[in-house]
Write a structure and sequence with these properties.
Blueprint lengths: L3 H8 L12 H6 L6 H12 L6 H7 L7 H5 L6 H15 L4 H13 L15 H4 L8 E4 L2 H6 L1 H13 L4 E3 L8 H7 L3 H15 L5 E4 L2 H13 L7 E4 H10 L12 E5 L2 H6 L4 H9 L3 E2 L14 H7 L1 H17 L4 E4 L2 H9 L6 E4 H8 L8
Parallel strand pairs: 1-2, 1-3, 3-4, 5-6, 5-7, 7-8
The protein binds iron/sulfur cluster (2 copies).
Amino acid sequence: MFSGKARKNADACRFCWMCRHLCPVGLATGRETNTPRVKGLMVSLVERGYKYTAEMAADMYECCLCEACTHDCATGFEPPLFIREARARAVAAGIAPPLVEKAIANLLEADNIYGAPKTERGKGFEAEARSLPEKAPVALRIGAAAAYRRPEIGAAVIRLLKAAGVEFCLIRDELQTGSELGDLMGSVGEVKAAAQAAVAQINATGAGTLVVLDPSEARTLIRECGEWSCAPKAKVVTATAFIAGLVREGRLKPSPLALGTVTFHDPCRLARDLEETGPARELIAAMGLEFREMFLHGPMTTCCGGIVLGAHSPKLTALTAARRRADAARTGASVLVTACPGCLDVLGGAKAEGMAVEDIFVLLARACGLEACRL
Ligand code: SF4
Ligand code: SF4
């Protein structure tokens, strides 16, 4: 049984088909089952007694939970709500795709979606982190995407905070917030327990401010943990907002970077879920970069696919990422900048054709003369 809220959402559609033009997965594959509306129809069918098959469950995973459909549906329809419930049911019934099961096992056993050994975590910023205390007024959470895949971003953020004179500690051996696990198996008990353990670890630092590098984790700590009554005691701030504040206060003084024209990919967790679009653009302006917006930007951003989809459907993610890079190329810019380690991994992963993909903090560290970040 789906919850009343999920059933109401699945049945609320007015068949205007606007969401069909917005879904990055539907646009990348051209498959009708990859429209938010058809996923709703499948839920309605199951609620009316139709068997929930492994094939339907696989379709429920062909979605990056980007919420573009929610943002633009005239009826207030929220497909991610019932898609998450459908995933919870698929996992409970043992009909989730094998690669989804593998990603869940990685998260439960290794605390990261890549299944990397914990000894690999943060290897690229160990030297930067060594001198940092266990407790401080500000705590920094790097997140698994940067810790395992893009350590140069973690190194850049640590260097920037040090250069600005911020009194901060690094949360070492971070426990997962449950953000990726929740995307894979819905808001079930294991996910809430993971979030509670991560919040207890954050609270133990005694920090009054928590700076979160990964936008997906920031969303979970701000939004879901609030709903689950386990919000951190510290004020949660995204790394983009915190570091833009340091530039505004004159504590970081970037020099102009000679990089050509850049465009910016708004991570959907940041721009749509947390409604944050200004700080990244402030940082780009502070580096003196010539800037062109993509047609779909800010809260209208198009998802690159993200690391969760990438973990279980890499071919599909290659398609969504290629579409987003094509959006960027249409601006005429030569560099695509983003502010999410996961987006950088996805957009820059498969040999970004014709366009360099850069992380905003790595660029800022370079503009601030922290040259060791030029990895
Ligand atoms: S935008 Fe909303 S109302 Fe229109 S087809 Fe999609 S789900 Fe239905
Ligand atoms: S959340 Fe994004 S990927 Fe999923 S159905 Fe909606 S628009 Fe498509």
